[in-house]
């Protein structure tokens, strides 16, 4: 085991070559892994060194020189072969990554990927363009309808204003017949002097209005109308 530690070989690999462990592994194929328990026959690992063995220096085991030299030679050969294998695999990997064929294939894959990306981008652009055109067409239609509605509303307001102006013009024309002008001013003055206007009136408890200075409700019978009293007073 000391030689195994010097050669940095796992003890489990050595134990797996023993007859007992080999028989266990061969009979039970369902074992995923196995672990050697050190304290199955000895004390647990976490216990300290016994006081009687605290300062004892165990003697180093001696192995035959021929055996040690032979195992060391085998280990050196194994390490050399594994190092050569690692270098060979590294060179093969580097050749696969940097070779002319690999570079050409990589460029071809990149070109295909670029073409695919451009195709997807063109499809996206076309889809966005279609949606944008549909949106702009809808907005233009809405704007056209709004402009038409505004024009109709302004036309209706203009026509309403024109009708109001026409009504006002007709009313003023009708009123213009009673205006005092240079031609009929003498007639208007004569009419104003001849006509008698009485602004006096009275109201009874029932709310009837009797116009005229000499209008007297107590002289009327059967609730005469104000027009009758005014005619009588005249």
Structure overview:
Helix 4 crosses helix 5 (100-176). This protein has a two-stranded antiparallel ribbon. The protein is elongated, with a radius of gyration of 64 Å. It is an all-alpha fold and 234 residues long. It has 7 helices and 2 strands; from the N terminus they run H-H-H-H-H-H-E-E-H. The N and C termini lie far apart (156 Å). The chain has helices at residues 2-6, 11-15, 19-27, 65-98, 100-176, 185-194, 226-233; strands at 201-203, 209-211. Strand 1 and strand 2 form a beta hairpin. Residues 1-17 and 220-234 have low confidence and may be disordered. The protein is 63% helix and 3% strand.
* Helix and strand pattern: HHHHHHEEH
Low-confidence stretches: 1-17, 220-234
> Whole-number average pLDDT?
79
Strand order of the largest sheet: 1-2
Annotation field: number of helices? 7
What is the rounded Rg?
64 Å
Straight-line distance between termini: 156 Å
Sheet-strand content, in percent, reads: under 5%
Strand count, sense and barrel status of the largest sheet are:
2 strands, antiparallel
Please state the structural category: mainly alpha
Percent of residues in helices: 55-70%
Strand tally is 2
General form: elongated
